[in-house]
Design a protein that fits this description.
heterotrimer; A alpha+beta (379); B alpha/beta (316); C alpha/beta (249); A: 379 residues; alpha+beta; Butyryl-Coa Dehydrogenase, subunit A, domain 1; Butyryl-CoA Dehydrogenase, subunit A, domain 2; Butyryl-CoA Dehydrogenase, subunit A, domain 3; 3 domains; four-stranded mixed beta sheet; 12 helices; 10 strands; 52% helix; 15% strand; globular; C: 249 residues; alpha/beta; Rossmann fold; nine-stranded mixed beta sheet; two-stranded antiparallel ribbon; 7 helices; binds flavin-adenine dinucleotide; ETF_b (chain C)
């Protein structure tokens, strides 16, 4: 099969292995996961056994030495089968990337191998009720008390929080130092003083619960990631990576929707001929394909930059913006091709539309991605 | 031109597939020899000799041939094969196990699963799970074919009188030994792998009707039971029976849609079936647009009548 | 005991193949390829024999063009120890494959050769039987269970209408049927590790085998599309049509 630019045989072999698991194990359950809000964290140990939960990590900490492109292809394959699962994995990577990027070897050794093996699931707590698009506005405090910090505050929409083994929490160690007053901590989930609320009632990715989490607890100094004040920088680097994961999730959902639309258009007869014969439908399919391929290319371009060790914040933002907006268009148009059947819960289209909607919001809404892109141009 | 047919039998009776194989053989030759290898073959030799078109029955009897072990049978057939232009066996697990082994012994490329004979050296066979039909020409001096019994009409079982010739049964090579055979009680097959599926829809009206109308019919055919979503939602059939977009996607050789209207979601799950039969009282039901054979009427009368008229099972 | 497994690269089973417009063959350009599913079951069985301490080494063999290396890498990732590619760009029909495999068997001297019962492209179901004939070994085709006890191989076979068990002397050939096992998911670290396992490439010339095709494929075509539904007037007519026209009974 001819490959898109920058994908190697190894990348494909990895993606095929993930696809097989995803199609056999995740896809048949996806509509039940959605309908009954079944937590996809239940798949974490199987995914870890496959090698997916540590895929973002170097081999030393349980990773497999996969390229950024292999990571993207794999997440796309998972999203193709089940958007909730891709989202659950993304949140786990946000947490482990934080430790990898912000921490030293001591804390990496303590948490990352367990995270890769599936023994511990990660969660990432940056957003607060009053600080989403503008994380610098956070008010959660971490105040030094001897060999501990006293962590106090409320985090909002924290994916995986309830089932996590550890939560990476971003908090102000110096409320007067702006972004330089933010530090990151790894907090064991069952530390006394952590309250995880019931999950939010979500429109989509209903198998990836997000919770409000209240902290009033002690965290050992040894659980701080890097120096005091380094947290914001860490978070931004982590988001550079994770936006590619969101792009990959967008691509997977889009692939699923487009494949369904093409199959339906060929099958469904209107006025005695297949829908696919109608030019109006053909143009929809063409537009979907065009936006999908464009999104693939910019995402793989960003991955190549990441792989080469170049700065890629702007490309990551462009990939996320392009792919998540494309996913919105493609899932919606694919539903349109299905007509009334697409609107029923019998077919997966309406789920794909709902699952895709979050991709334009979390890890920096589309507006914020534009800010990131523009900043790289005018700074 | 003389054709050799390797008979499949259980030492007592001839398998029906052998009759179709002889039917195929008559398309390439006018004189048919049938090899019967086994043990205690008297009855089956008699029966074979009465098949019209069969000129000679070759009989090899010995205990080491009793179970059709390919290791002992192949040298026997290979010794005979050179005398013929065509050697045919049924494309059953028996024929497929044996014939390639014979072919390699005489350095011939066999042709599997023949569904049509175009000329003495040119044959049609399905490839890619039947999605493609290939026409192949054999350039070997002997043509070794396994033939699909469904593609050729069986010959009648009486009217002929063939010569019977006993042959040397060869040696027991002692490489393989028959241990046991368990023939499956006709427990119902899985939906995914069934050759025949009988599916019921809302037209059945109750789970009792599924039991009383559909199940005996399915069992007669060795078929799996399916259901439309409407029937599952109404509680007539369990969830795991559902055929369709959100249920199982199936593609059996034969699909009976009984009392199913044919919503597009259901069609998506079964339209790749090889032969579709629809029974429905509504002549306008969309299921008739994909059915090869449609029967309009009351399923509660038609299905039992169909059951009564089936004299040959399909399962075997 | 050394175990050899033969694996074929075929069009992925999810792909619906199309015939080329001129009927000269099946469209293979840009089509996803994968290991033949029956061969995957054979590899799984070999690896399980190794994990059970019965097999000492598992050698995977593929025959065909360069990309077959990818298929061999999959076998290595599943747990085979090393791989051999008999590289050839020409069409290899089952008889030629059996002869090549025989030559490899003579070099490698395995006690057991596992193959899939058939490849899902040509659906020939011949190679294992032919290899057994050429080697003069016993064959356990369409296996759904394989058990080694006291130097004998007990093979349960899926035959029409049921199961049959044979006892085979070693060395032997076994061809895998669907229910023999359920192949594992290949773990991602194994894919990376498989890159470091040895993969030797030889040619049919090295083995001294003539691979010229014996069967000539004249053309391929897709089966006639489904006709618009015809209605039958009675149960009797339906039964007769199913028997004589559709030939399903
Ligand atoms: C299901 C789900 C899971 C989540 N998981 C996590 C998680 O695991 N961890 C975590 O930390 N967070 C998580 N989040 C939070 C998510 O990242 C935030 O919701 C997101 O960053 C947006 O913040 P907000 O909701 O506060 O919106 P707001 O910041 O209030 O923004 C509202 C709107 O205004 C726009 N806007 C804001 N600022 C500007 C500007 N300067 N210029 C133009 N437009 C602007 C935004 O783009 C948006 O459209 C999750 C959210 C959801 C819904």
């Amino acid at each position: 099969m001819s490959e898109r630019l920058g994908i190697t045989e190894d990348d494909r072999a990895i993606a095929d292995a993930v696809a097989r698991f995803a199609q056999n194990e995740l896809a048949p359950q996806a509509h039940i996961v959605d309908r009954d809000e079944i937590r996809t964290t239940r798949y974490a140990s199987q995914l870890a056994e496959l090698g997916v939960m540590g895929m973002n990590l170097p081999e030393r900490w349980g990773g497999i030495g996969a390229s950024p492109a292999a990571l993207i292809l794999s997440i796309a394959e998972i999203a193709k089968a089940c958007g909730s699962t891709a989202s659950m994995i993304g949140a786990h990577y946000l947490a482990t990337d934080s430790i990898l990027i912000g921490g030293d070897d001591m804390i990496r050794d303590r948490y990352l191998p367990d995270a890769a093996s599936g023994a511990k699931l990660g969660a990432f707590a940056l957003t607060e009720p009053g600080a989403g698009s503008n994380p610098a506005g956070m008010i959660t405090r971490a105040e030094r008390e001897g060999e501990h910090y006293r962590l106090r505050g409320v985090k909002q929409f924290i994916s995986n929080a309830d089932d996590a083994g550890f939560i990476v929490v971003y908090a102000k160690t110096d409320p007067n130092a702006g972004t330089r007053g933010i530090s990151a901590f790894v907090v064991d989930r069952h530390t006394p003083g952590i309250t995880v609320s019931a999950p939010e009632k979500l429109m989509g990715i209903r198998g990836a619960p997000a919770h409000e989490v209240t902290f009033d607890c002690l965290v050992p100094v040894a659980n701080r990631l890097g120096e005091e004040g380094a947290g914001f920088y860490t978070a931004m680097k982590v988001l550079d990576n994770s936006r590619l994961d969101v792009a990959a999730t967008s691509l997977g959902l889009s692939e699923a929707a487009l494949a369904a639309a093409v199959a339906w258009a060929k099958e469904r007869k209107v006025g005695g001929e297949p829908l696919a014969n109608k030019q109006g439908i053909q143009w929809m399919l063409a537009d979907m394909k065009l936006r999908l391929e464009a999104a693939w290319l910019i995402t793989l371009q960003a991955a190549a930059k990441r792989g080469a060790g170049e700065k890629f914040s702007d490309y990551s933002a462009m990939a996320k913006l392009c792919a998540s907006e494309a996913a919105g268009f493609i899932t919606d148009t694919a539903l349109q091709v299905h007509g009334g059947y697409g609107f029923t819960r019998e077919l997966p289209l309406e789920r794909l539309v709902r699952d895709a909607r979050i991709l334009r919001i979390y890890e920096g809404a589309s507006e914020i991605q534009r800010t990131v892109i523009a900043r790289a141009m005018v700074a | 031109m003389t054709v050799l047919v390797i008979a499949e039998h259980d030492n007592h009776t001839l398998k029906a597939a052998t009759l179709s194989t002889i039917g195929a053989a008559l398309q390439v030759g006018d004189e048919i020899h049938v090899l019967l290898a086994g043990q205690g073959l008297a009855a089956v030799v008699d029966a074979t000799a009465r098949i019209p078109g069969v000129a000679k029955v070759l009989v090899a009897e010995e205990v080491h041939l009793a179970h059709g072990l390919a290791e002992n049978l192949a040298p026997l057939v290979a010794g005979l094969a050179r005398r013929y232009l065509h050697v045919l066996a049924p494309a059953s697990t028996f024929g497929k196990n044996l014939l390639p082994r014979v072919a390699a012994l005489i350095d011939v490329a066999p042709v599997s699963d023949v569904i049509a004979i175009e000329s003495p050296d040119t044959f049609k066979r399905p490839i890619y799970a039947g999605n493609v039909i290939a026409t192949v020409q054999s350039r070997d001096s002997v043509k070794l074919l396994t033939v699909r019994s469904t593609a050729f009409s069986p010959v009648p079982v009486a009217g002929g009188s063939a010569e019977v010739e006993t042959m040397d049964p060869g040696l027991d090579l002692g490489q393989s030994r028959f241990v046991s055979r368990q023939l499956t009680e006709t427990s119902r097959p899985e939906l995914d792998s069934a050759r025949v599926i009988v599916s019921g829809g809302r037209g059945l009206g109750s789970s009792e009707a599924f039991k009383q109308i559909l199940e005996p019919f399915a069992d007669r055919l060795g078929a799996a039971i399916g259901a439309s979503r409407a029937a599952v939602d109404a509680g007539y059939a369990p969830n795991d029976c559902q055929v369709g977009q959100t249920g199982k996607i199936v593609a059996p050789q034969l699909y009976f849609a009984v009392g199913i209207s044919g919503a597009i979601q259901h069609l998506a799950g079964m339209k790749d079936s090889k032969v579709i039969v629809a029974i429905n009282k509504d002549a306008e039901a969309p299921i008739f647009q994909v059915a090869d054979y449609g029967l309009v009427g009351d399923l509660f009368e038609l299905v039992p009548e169909l059951l009564a008229q089936l004299d040959v099972g399909i399962g075997a | 005991m050394k175990v050899m497994v033969a694996v074929k690269r075929v069009v992925d089973f999810n792909v619906k193949v199309r015939c080329k417009a001129d009927g000269s063959g099946v469209e293979l350009a840009n089509v996803k390829m994968a290991m033949n599913p029956f061969d995957e079951i054979a590899v799984e069985e070999a690896v399980r024999l190794k994990e059970a301490g019965i097999a000492s080494e598992v050698v995977a063999v593929s025959l065909g063009a360069k990309p077959c290396e990818e298929t061999l890498r999959t076998a290595l990732a599943m747990g085979a120890d090393r791989a051999i590619l008999v590289e050839s760009d020409s069409e290899l029909q089952p008889l030629a494959v059996a002869k090549l495999l025989m030559a490899v068997v003579e070099r490698e001297a395995p006690q057991l050769v596992l193959l899939g019962k058939q490849a899902i492209d040509d659906d020939a179901n011949q190679t294992g039987q032919m290899l057994a004939a050429l080697l003069g070994w016993p064959q356990g085709t369409f296996a759904s269970r394989v058990e080694l006890s006291e130097g004998q191989l007990k093979v349960t076979r899926e035959i029409d209408g049921g199961l049959e068990t044979l006892a085979l002397a070693l060395p032997a050939i076994v061809t895998a049927d669907l229910r023999l096992n359920e192949p594992r998911y290949v773990k991602l670290p194994s894919i990376m590790a498989a890159k470091k396992k040895p993969l030797a490439v030889i040619t049919p010339q090295d083995l001294g085998v003539d691979v010229a095709p014996r069967l000539k494929q004249l053309k391929v075509a897709e089966p006639a599309p489904r006709r618009a539904g015809g209605q039958v007037g009675s149960v009797a007519e339906l039964v007769s049509k199913l028997k004589n026209e559709a030939k399903v009974f």
